Amino acid sequence: MKKWKYLTMTAVLGSALLLGACGSETESEEATNGSQTTETAAAGDAQLTGSVSGDGSSTVAPITEGLVEEYAGTQPDVKVSVGVSGTGGGFEKFIAGETDFSNASRPIKDEEKAKLDEAGIEYTEFQVAYDGLTVVVNPENDWATELTVDQLKKLWIEDGTTKKWSDIDPSWPAEEIVFYSPGTDSGTYDYFDEVILDGSDLVKSATLSEDDNVLVQGVAADKNAIGFFGFAYYLENQNKLTAVKVDGVEPTNETIESGEYTPLSRPLFVYAKNSALKDNEAFYDFMKFTLENAGEMAETVGYVKLPDAKYTEGLTALEGLK
């Protein structure tokens, strides 16, 4: 996983705190005698200990990783561990009772809800950001920089043929297309399946991976390649990829937030176990920190923040679970 831009922000904040610590000994004593340290004040709570565990979407991961890094500065004695096994894989661990929360780049499925109900696990859904699922091609590809939804279906749905660019448009090269896709445990795959594949099979020749960086590298290395993944991964690699316009609309913060970039705009989620929120003060505090800071972190790592009212709704729901 890359070191995201929030690390720079963290360094600046850290420098500011160090500069503030260079005052006189008397000033330090006065600060120490205050009701809270700087870190505690930032967290808004007493210092906590404990552990928190999560897993799930690689798309949501950059937001969560940034929040974990920032949270460690306010609650250093709380250990937050987050795996990246894809939305489906994350829900499997959530259902098995192995995690406190599950990151997802799609809404929970009915069968997953049923399994959680069977396991006696109650949960709450929180939205944390918007994403635009981004279709990308190699920069040497100057013919397929704009595609319609119908062309995406023709490209990606398995039809028993070896697909060439010229099959999509006769004026395009008669060269075989190389496909890169998130794995089937990925919420990004599920969302693409819903809005593009319509439940049909994905092209069998596609290289699948739960690691979006593998997909980035594959498309960047082959002029006949095409792939898709979350908007943030495109932004981090836009010097070696071209984002495809869909029905004439380019994925940007503005088009994703407005819904103009359709049908590939989507919300991102965190699903939290209610019993853990009640019994684990550290987890409750981390989720509160998440909802208070997810919008800013989403923008920092390349996604789109929700309207402030959405985060307020989430915090109200969280407070009701304490």
UniProtKB/TrEMBL annotation:
Keywords attached to this entry: Cell membrane, Lipoprotein, Membrane, Palmitate, Phosphate transport, Signal, Transport
Location(s), subcellular: Cell membrane
Record bears the keyword Transport: yes
Topology term for the membrane: Lipid-anchor
GO molecular function: phosphate ion binding
A cellular component annotation (GO) from this entry: plasma membrane
Signal peptide residues on this chain, from the entry's feature table: 1-21
Keyword Cell membrane included in the entry's annotation: yes
Pfam families referenced in this protein's UniProt entry, alphabetically: PBP_like_2
GO biological process terms held by the UniProt record: phosphate ion transport
Domain PBP: from-to ranges: 42-291
CDD domains reported for this sequence: PBP2_phosphate_like_2 (cd13654)
InterPro entries referenced in this protein's UniProt entry, alphabetically: PBP_domain, Phos-bd, Phosphate_ABC_transporter
Family (UniProt): Belongs to the PstS family.
Annotated protein name in UniProt: Phosphate-binding protein
Taxonomic lineage from the root: Bacteria, Bacillati, Bacillota, Bacilli, Bacillales
